Automatic annotation (TrEMBL):
Organism whose genome encodes this protein: Helianthus annuus
InterPro entries attached to this UniProt entry: ANXUR1/2-like, Kinase-like_dom_sf, Prot_kinase_dom, Ser-Thr/Tyr_kinase_cat_dom
Any one cellular-component term (Gene Ontology): plasma membrane
One Gene Ontology molecular-function label: protein kinase activity
Sequence ranges assigned to domain Protein kinase in this UniProt record: 25-315
Keywords assigned by UniProt, alphabetized: Membrane, Transferase, Transmembrane, Transmembrane helix
Transmembrane listed as a keyword: yes
Protein name: Protein kinase domain-containing protein
Length: 382
């Protein structure tokens, strides 16, 4: 262990600095606790400036503590990406095993996923960022090996102050040659209930496609605001429920209600749900790779943006020329609102069966959406 740690010597931080940063590991500084570690927030003087940190203190009595500690340091020091948590250093004095990373102020995705402030556009951006991080881990050309994460959940996805996704939780990750990315490997950690690749339970092996299954579960968590394991439905998994409803064409029944009025492009939802569904294929060979997933999620985001970008300028145009006190405008906007709700319901009911929307109808609907949101803005509802 000591010989192995010498190559990370430049990352070593004195224990006394970590103790000071976390107020002697005070319970008020705890931000997370799992089976093998406790994570504390704090402030550390680093590179001449004070930075907010997260100090993950591994349980020295835990049998797997040393291995997981080394595993996470190895991954975070070798792989750098804007959507991965950044390692600051570690401390291993006096039998302590502590990893210090940047502090992501918003917390985990699980904590924030049901917030009404987390819009559909923001959710799409989180998904794109996470997909890009996984694509980098699986296929980075700059390394002779890739990484299978093995623990992708809404709890290991953190959000920074700008709402950007930061993937963490690399203690169970497995290195894999980039030339043999389809090769299976043993996995002692089977994953979080509801997120685990069913093939692991059957074979005991993992591939990068196991990460893709877990990612698909997270995509449906983000869309539906439901836990991966639904305890009030006989412990049925969200993956099973979402697949069943998708195949029936009634996925909209479990979409998070506040999102229904924000998903302005049915095609965006169509692409997103298709990607999520394909990630959950029981046959690993038929699951998409991360390159394809990134491209599709970026397309889903691009389809959503034009509708949102046109609302504000159009709103100010209307206010400038008409003012906000014309009652006839309110009546007209309410009419357009009813049309918008009707069309959205029809579009969502058929979204799984149709891959293309009529361009003229799409244009007409866009006008209705614009007028509806202008009305909300004008009267301070939105």
């Amino acid at each position: 262990m000591k010989t192995t740690m010498t190559k990370f010597a430049s990352l070593r931080i004195p224990l006394e600095d970590v103790v000071k940063a976390t107020n002697n590991f005070h319970e008020d500084y705890i931000i997370q606790h799992d089976g093998i570690s406790t994570t504390y927030k704090g402030r550390l003087l680093w590179s001449g400036k004070e930075v907010k940190i997260a100090a993950r203190r591994f349980d020295c009595k835990h049998v797997e503590g040393d291995l997981k500690f080394l595993n996470e340091i190895s991954v975070l020091s070798d792989f750098k990406h804007t959507n991965l948590v950044s390692i600051i250093g570690f401390s291993d004095e006096k039998d302590e095993k502590i990893i210090i990373t940047t502090y992501e102020a918003t917390g985990s995705l699980r904590q924030y996923i049901n917030s009404p402030n987390l819009t559909w556009k923001q959710r799409l951006r989180i998904c794109v960022g996470l997909a890009q991080a996984l694509s980098y881990l699986h296929y980075d050309e700059g390394c002779d090996h890739g990484i299978i994460h093995c623990n992708i959940t809404s709890d290991t996805i953190l959000l920074d102050e700008n709402g950007e996704a930061k993937l963490s939780g690399f203690e169970f990750s497995i290195k894999q040659s980039v030339n043999y990315k389809d090769q299976v490997g043993p996995c002692e950690h089977t994953g979080t209930m509801g997120c685990v690749d069913p093939a692991i339970e059957k074979t005991g092996d993992v591939t990068h496609k196991s990460d893709i299954y877990s990612f698909g579960v997270v995509l449906f968590e983000i869309l539906c605001d439901r836990n991966a394991l639904i305890h009030n439905e006989a412990d049925r998994s969200l993956a099973q429920l979402a697949k069943h409803l998708y195949e029936k064409g009634t996925l909209h029944d479990i979409i998070h209600p506040p999102l229904l009025n924000q998903i302005l492009s049915p095609q965006s939802l169509l692409i997103y749900s298709k990607v999520a569904y394909s990630c959950l294929n029981d046959d690993r060979a038929h699951r998409p790779d991360m390159h394809h997933i990134v491209a599709e999620l970026e397309k889903a985001l691009e389809l959503q943006l034009p509708y949102e970008n046109i609302v504000r300028p159009f709103f100010y145009f209307i206010i400038y020329f008409f003012g906000i006190h014309y009652s006839w405008m309110v009546i007209f906007l309410l009419f357009q609102y009813l049309y918008f709700l009707f069309y959205l319901k029809v579009s969502q009911n058929r979204m799984v069966k149709e891959s293309k929307l009529n361009q003229k109808t799409e244009t007409l609907r866009m006008g209705s959406i614009v007028l509806f949101f202008v009305g909300l803005d004008m009267y301070g509802i939105r």
